[in-house]
Amino acid sequence: MMTTRRPDVKDDDQFHTAAACRVLGICYNTLAKYDALGYIDSMMRNGRKVYSGKQIKQLYDNISIF
């Protein structure tokens, strides 16, 4: 279940997959599903997916209404 508190992150912060999952309170598979569905966009840095703080907050705002 996603965290009940909006993540307190800066827009320009960058999070690898594991850190993004911790901040959002979701598992890797859930984040991968949201990424595949286009709810959040990942960037590639050094061959790893990275999510910005802005994207994480937008995902939280959009998903938490379901």
3D structure, described in words:
The chain has helices at 17-24, 28-37, 53-63; strands at residues 14-16, 43-45, 48-52. It is α+β, with helices and mostly antiparallel strands and 66 residues long. The protein has one domain (14-63). A hairpin with a 2-residue loop joins strand 2 and strand 3 (48-52). The protein is globular, with a radius of gyration of 11 Å. It starts with 13 loop residues before the first strand and ends with a helix.
Topology (SSEs and partners):
Blueprint: E1 14-16, H1 17-24, H2 28-37, E2 43-45, E3 48-52, H3 53-63
Compact summary:
The chain is α+β, with helices and mostly antiparallel strands and 66 residues long.
Biggest sheet: strand arrangement: 1-3-2
Q: Which structural class do the helices and strands define? A: alpha+beta
Number of DSSP helical runs: 3
Overall, the morphology is: globular
Q: What profile does the largest beta sheet have?
A: 3 strands, antiparallel
| Integer average pLDDT | 92
DSSP E strands, number: 3
Query: Unreliable runs, pLDDT <50, ≥5 residues?
Result: none
Helix content: 40-55%
Number of domains: 1
Cα(first) to Cα(last) distance is 12 Å
- Integer-rounded radius of gyration: 11 Å
How much of the residues is beta strand, in percent?
Answer: 15-25%
Descriptive tags:
66 residues; alpha+beta; 3-stranded antiparallel beta sheet; 3 helices; 3 strands; globular
